[in-house]
Structures are given as structure tokens and as C-alpha cells.
Write a structure and sequence with these properties.
The structure is a homodimer. The first copy, chain A, is of the alpha/beta class and about 220 residues long. Chain A contains 8 helices and 11 strands.
Chain lengths: ~220, ~220
């Protein structure tokens, strides 16, 4: 498979490297073609690793992963170009963090809307699936680092796209049974709002190597 | 101990009955003294069970539990009277659910504020602790119905009040180790925003007999 990873931060680099490991071809996209982190990543990654603009990456990918920061997501996808997203699965891993008011941060959008919904509205022909935004990059690609089952959540309007994402997540190590489909893309707002709890747990626990497990009465 | 339980809904009645079982004296408060649910509850509960207005209840309690709906919380506490809350631990179990827009509901307050913060600002001499709003009434008073450890979260400005709440929760069956203190009262917003995920999990799982467990890498 050919993946576009938009964003050169820790999430983008970690996912992109894991996808190389899994034998995929990956183009990392950033605002400018000469981005230092993307260039370094592609040079380390060898032949199946490419880098370019958001547009270059989206054009090259069968699947597009938005690993930009939530507040920059729409602009990045705008640069990527609507025609390069059309009909593709677009995995949105972003969180809408407003860093302007200190720690813990506020969200730039909450309650009545979410980044994923904004993306789906702006790019109606993209098949947006919210996923992975509730764990840190290390846990994303190595869920086994935490013992026992723990959960990921997905949301999106397109059932076939969600099935593809479940298969993609299985490649990262997530058992299909541990992935909870919350329903259509409007449910992404619950996942983005969970960030407010996640970030406080991170502060309390002292690191980001954790997740939650949904446990039920028998 | 003497508890005031404000609210006659399923949360109020369940907590109030559990507190009777534990040997406490409980006054259930509602808008009007003759509230049917409160009258029936007190009649079933026998001698240590009382009912009255929000004011009667708050005056009678050493500890006040807000089990009203989030959107009615401030008005209920206003009726209870500032002087009846002063210096007391006030356990806020409420969720700020806006039912006007269908299911899943929006929150009436989110991101930049929370019901618990509103209460603490309006009643600065009350010792507000957010607790129990992340599980349903059955789980609140019987955490053992779910196997293995699972977590409750608290938030509040007053460390001594939080310690009292941890002891109160132990009475309900929550091991102190399973109670995670997120910090000051502003952290209540994360717990109230979690409701958006909880309600979608409830829909997905088909019932409310669940909770989350925070799991960590070893």
C-alpha cells in the first residue's frame, strides 16, 4: 500500500516509520518540500520513504493520514488538494489543542463540532475516519507495550472505510476486538473531548504510556 | 454522618439508599417539600430517612451531595442557601446535559468551564469536589459489579475535602487506589466532557453497566 502521512511531528514520524517497517511505501508531507524533519526521515527510511509537500504526499497515497496538529489540519488538507483526497480513506489522528492559554490546554473546537467533522464537511468526497487520537504515538504503533486489552475508538460515516481502518490498525498491533466503532463522524467530538481527560491523566501519571480499557459488568 | 442528597432522580435515590444502608442519616432534598419521589423514598427508608426542600436538606447535612441534573444544579444550590453550604464538603455528581438537541446530547457547558467550577465560583465557601459523574448510579454504589480494578476520578480545590470524599467513596466500595485525583476544580471539565464518550459507549454497549480502567505500560 502507498500511504501519505501529513505532518512531520512525533505522531507523523512514528506512524510513517511503522508503515515502512510493515513494508508499505510512505510519502511524508509537510508545508514546504524541503522540510528538515521530513527530509531526515526519508533519508533514514531508504527507498520506500519519500517526502514532499502536503500535495505531493496526498497525490502519492492510496490512504491519507492526517497527523498534523488539529488547528492546522484544514489548512494542510486544503494544500493537499481536494482532488487528491477524493475517494480515499483519510485517517484523522489530530487533536484540536489550543496552546495559547497554558496547561492544561483548551480545545479549539468542542461539544458541537470537531476537527474530524470539519474535515468531512469541507471534503465530502474524502472518507474520513477518526482514529488513534486517544493515545500517544508510542502506544499507537506498539499497543502491546501495555499488558492486557485496551481500547481504541473510531468514528466515521463510511462503513467500508472504517473496516479498512480496522485492518490498518491490526497492522499496528491493535486487535479488532479492542477497536470500538462509535458510529458516524459526529462521534469524533467525543474522542477529541476525551483529550482533556487524557492530558490530565498524563500529568497525573507522569508519562504518556497509558490507555484506557472499557470494562463491563458480567 | 448526616448527608443531604439534593435530587430525587435515580442517582439521588440510589446514593441516598446506599447511605442509609451504611448507617447514615440522610435528608433528600427537592424543589418542593412534598415531592412524591422523595416522600416515597423517605417512607421506605424508615427513621434515618428524611425529606424536604433543598434548603431543609442542605441545612440538615454535614455533607451535601448534588445529584440534580447539571443544568439545574446552580438553581438547586441557590435554593439550598449559601449559609447551608458554607464549610461543607459538596460532592458534585452532575453532568451538564443539554437534551434539547436529541441524542447523543450536547453539554450545556464545556471546554472553558464546567458545572463544578460554576458551583465553586458561586459558593466559594463550599468545599466542592467533583466525583461519581463518570459512572451510572448502579456502578456508583456497587463498583464490585465490574470485575477487576476500574477508576473513578475526582477534582477539587480543597485537599482535605478530597480526602473526605475518598473515604466516602471507600464506603461505597471504591478502593482508594482506584480513585484518581486530577487536581483542582478546573479539572472537573475533563470529567464532565468525558460524559460525551460515556454516553456513546453506553449506546454501543447497550447498557450502562461499564466503566473504564486506566492501564499503563509496565
Amino acid at each position: 500500500m502507498r500511504y501519505a502521512v501529513l505532518g512531520t511531528g512525533i505522531v507523523g514520524r512514528t506512524l510513517a516509520s511503522k508503515l515502512l517497517e510493515l513494508g508499505h511505501e510512505v510519502t511524508m508531507g509537510s508545508r514546504s518540500a524541503g522540510n528538515e524533519a521530513a527530509t531526515a526521515w526519508a533519508s533514514d527510511g531508504g527507498e520506500p520513504a519519500h517526502h514532499g509537500t502536503f500535495r505531493d504526499a496526498a497525490a502519492a497515497g492510496d490512504v491519507v493520514i492526517n497527523a498534523t496538529a488539529g488547528e492546522g489540519a484544514l489548512a494542510a488538507l486544503e494544500s493537499a488538494g481536494e482532488e487528491n483526497l477524493e475517494g480515499k480513506v483519510l485517517i484523522d489522528t489530530s487533536n484540536a489543542i489550543d496552546h495559547s492559554s497554558g496547561f492544561p490546554p483548551l480545545l479549539t473546537v468542542a461539544n458541537t463540532d470537531s476537527v474530524a467533522e470539519q474535515i468531512q464537511r469541507r471534503f465530502p468526497r474524502a472518507r474520513v475516519v477518526k482514529a488513534l487520537n486517544t493515545v500517544n504515538a508510542e502506544v499507537m504503533v506498539n499497543p502491546g507495550m501495555i499488558d492486557g486489552g485496551h481500547n481504541l475508538f473510531i468514528a466515521g460515516d463510511d462503513a467500508a472505510a472504517k473496516a479498512e481502518v480496522v485492518a490498518f490498525l491490526a497492522g499496528l498491533g491493535w486487535a479488532a476486538d479492542d477497536v470500538i466503532d462509535l458510529g458516524d463522524i459526529t462521534n469524533a467530538r467525543a474522542l477529541e473531548m476525551y483529550l482533556t481527560l487524557w492530558i490530565r491523566l498524563m500529568r497525573r501519571l507522569g508519562n504518556a504510556r497509558f490507555n484506557i480499557r472499557v470494562v463491563r459488568a458480567s
